[in-house]
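Hi! If you just cloned this repository, the fastest way to understand the data is to look at a raw example. We've pasted two of them here, unedited. The first protein comes first, obviously.
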Amino acid sequence: MQTQALQSQSATVMAAIIAAFTSVAVLVLTASVSQIRFLYERRAERESLLNGLFAEMASICEHYVYVHAEFLETASWDHGTTLERLRLARYGDLLSTEDFGRYGFLNAEDVRLLLQLRLRIRNNDLILDSLLEKQQNGRPIALEAIPGRASYASATANEVMRRLAGKRRRLRDTLNALKREVPGIH
């Protein structure tokens, strides 16, 4: 009888040990899958942010390349054309700089360039607003500085794109395609 009790007790202990090991194995497997999923989602979010940032830099370059070209030909513009071109020359907000916490993977130089670009775009827009107000009020305006300011903003966005493309092969391919399609992207 004692032998049966010991065997029963041993079987119970063995079942408990197997259950404990199974629980630990399931826990380790679940934690591993969760960690892999977290890392995958983080990498996907990072790629998405890089794509968005790169696309915004390309948009800025293209915008300012055309602003530069348009404002070299101002002699033939009438009052209405000048007002329209001044309105269209504004870029607006640089969306990628609204939350730098999302771009923690960028290095300090990349962040500095983005901040400089945001400042240049804001200053360009302020100057364009001032010129637009003067033009609307019939006061004389000087448009000669606009092509240079546009080139400066475009060059900064080009530099950010070049730096991002240096870190990702896929972005290098995109940059090379843009160079063929958009004048002024280099």
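Ok, and the second one:
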Amino acid sequence: MKTTDDCKSGKRKKEPWLMPVTKAFYEKIRLKGEYAVRKLGCGSSAICNLMKVIDAYLLQGKEPHYGEWEWILSFFYSVQSDIDAAIERRRRCRERAAERKARKEAAIAEAQAKEVAENEAVEPETVVENFSRPSGIADTDSGIPIRDSLDAALTNGRGKG
């Protein structure tokens, strides 16, 4: 994690959320677990054990084994369907967000390509065809350098100065 010295704004950078459910849902499950622990009269370490089981299921898909305390098994299996539904909801939300981002990037790329195509639409031949030389300026085929013929045309043959 970055410290306040590493960040430009002076604020600490947030750790990325790695759980496949929202923070709000995770907090809701934690509060339900605390309520169950309090009602059962278990010690304060019981909520830590319960959350380790839930974290293992969320991160690795591991279901608790039957060596766990019975109340942990009961609580886990009572909320497992809610957890699975929350994981699926979050997965669909991420897919929709990725689709929106891809559509936005495609629209930006299309707009940039259209702009480039419009800028390249001017044909050099059209510009050359419409160009006409002022009278008195010699072509390079005449053997007179263009610079000299320009000077002559500008001074109308009176010489320089």
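That's it. A detail worth noticing about the second one: The mean pLDDT is 79.
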